[in-house]
Amino acid sequence: MGTPPLPLESLFPISLPLYTIPFPKQGLCMHLLGTLQWTRHAYDTLLSAPVKRLLIVAVIVLAVSLGYRTYGSPETGTGSLTLPQPSPNTDEPAPSFEADQRDGGSFDFSGEGTYVLAFWSTLNKDTADARPEFDRLARDYASKDISFAAVYVSNVLSVPEDEMEVPYAVMQDGSGELTAMYNVKRVPRLFLVHDGTIEMVQNGYYAQNEKSLREELDRIVEENAT
């Protein structure tokens, strides 16, 4: 035999008549009390013991969830209690590679210099939103010894037509080798690499991404000039 369910009266001690139907002038509180009376009536007469226990558990879970959302910190309250992004990440070594570009050339991602490497997909809306900013950044920093490259993770060779002449290298990762090397679980994912070390990682597309990336690029350019 399991533990008997808690009586609903212990949760909602109500002394109103069973079929109290409040008038508008009685106000919201009376209306809520009447509703609880109907709930208690259904609980006592219509539900079996297992269903009652399940209902009590559901009410407790709901109460805890509401408390978490209401009284949690700004970080926890918005649901950002997630695991860290997969490696490689900021301040970690960037895996080097050499890959064929879409136009037939070769792209050498070495341990020297500054690179901005983005992983995209033709089937992803955020990729379409990120591309104009990436193009703009590549043009603005073309004369500052910073290399830009985009890797399409899809195994379908379908690079957008308007990306045939762009100021950055474009690669197709049909085998998934580069995607696995950089542990890309979602796109867009962008890496800013300076002299072999990852300086910044951007996951997803957000309006402030370009501003943040520009600030880091300007810092690196200034350091290189000194």
Account of the 3D structure:
By secondary structure, the chain is of the alpha/beta class. It folds into two domains: 8-77, no CATH class; 97-225, Glutaredoxin, CATH 3.40.30. It contains seven helices and seven strands, in the order ααααβββαββαββα. The strands form two sheets. It has a five-stranded mixed beta sheet, covered by helices on one side. β3 (114-120), α5 (125-140) and β4 form a beta-alpha-beta unit. The longest helix is centred in the N-terminal third of the chain and has 23 residues, at 49-71.
Keywords:
226 residues; 2 domains; 7 helices; elongated
Summarize the structure.
With 226 residues, the chain is α/β, with parallel strands linked by helices. The protein is 39% helix and 17% strand.
Tell me the strand order in the biggest sheet: 5-4-3-6-7
> Which CATH architecture of the largest domain would you pick?
3-Layer(aba) Sandwich
Main sheet overview: 5 strands, mixed
Query: How big is the Rg?
Result: 29 Å
**Topology as a string of helices (H) and strands (E):** HHHHEEEHEEHEEH
Classification by helices and strands: alpha/beta
C-alpha end-to-end distance:
78 Å
Percent helix, as a range, is 25-40%
CATH topology of the largest domain: Glutaredoxin
User: Could you say which overall geometry the principal axes of the C-alpha atoms support?
Assistant: elongated
Tell me the total number of β-strands: 7
User: In the residues, how many domains can be counted?
Assistant: 2
Mean pLDDT: 77
CATH superfamily (homologous) name of the largest domain: Glutaredoxin
